[in-house]
Amino acid sequence: MVAADGVPSVEVIKAAVDKVPTCRDLIVIDDENPLSELTADGPGTVTSPPGHARDAAVITFPHRDLGTPKGVVLSHAAMLHNAAAVTAMLYDESSDQRHPDVHLVVVPLFHVVALEGFGHSETGMVGLHARVGDAKPQSVGSPAPGTQVRLVTSDGTEVVGPGEGELWIRGPGLMSGYLHDAQASAAVLRDGWHHTGNTAHREVDGHFVMVGRPTHVVMRGGHVIYRRALEEALLTHPAISAAKSVAMPDARLGEEL
């Protein structure tokens, strides 16, 4: 690419990077520096993050939240852990077996993981994943390295062994919380566990299958409706002091409120 003034845009970027002391590396991929050369030697070494490990590294705003955009804060330590976990799942050093596909994953596309599994922004997109050569139809794999998983029923009972319940995830790769929203953070982060709101089934072999989506999202005639957003709109009326929406099966629309 060439900038408007005729100067190659890579050179413009390099000049800007030189003015940012905290930027340690600039990776250029072009005809002279193809991606194949960067990935030829397998996974690289993950180094310690700069500054304080618990400082915010990334803030994302997932579209599938509770209707009101919430910034998911991931620390340097969380990003480092998740990068190491994904590397471990893509590359089995004990057998020298590696995933057949090679992917470059960069911020802000860090959530694009080349593995069959389950995760979302609050877990750094790391949670349940299939290992190399261990994929199964409909399965999202087993817990990623360093990640703990629970299945909990609606009455708070933990499911031991095969069974179904709400998926809880705990590990160093979780978000620090929602940006400037302690109440929302406390609602999904309890005693170190992230309550995903998703229903999963654990099979006999320890693999998981996702069987439900977040209960706060309703699909009405192909339209996504956030129950929280509807309830908040109702509460703006002076005659309404409390509101609760319930999704019901509908033969024509799929779901109705």
Describe the structure.
With 257 residues, the protein is α+β, with helices and mostly antiparallel strands. It has 2 domains: 34-210, Rossmann fold; 217-256, ANL, C-terminal domain (GMP Synthetase, Chain A, domain 3, 2-Layer Sandwich). 18% of the residues lie in helices and 25% in strands. The chain has 5 helices and 17 strands. The strands form 6 sheets. Strands 8, 9, 11, 12 and 13 form a 5-stranded antiparallel β-sheet that branches. Strands 1-2-10 form a 3-stranded antiparallel β-sheet. Strands 5-6-7 form a 3-stranded antiparallel β-sheet, with no helix packed on it. The radius of gyration is 22 Å and the shape is globular. The N and C termini lie far apart (51 Å). Mean pLDDT is 77; it is low at 1-7.
Task: Describe the structure concisely.
Helices cover 18% and strands 25% of the residues. With 257 residues, it is an alpha+beta fold.
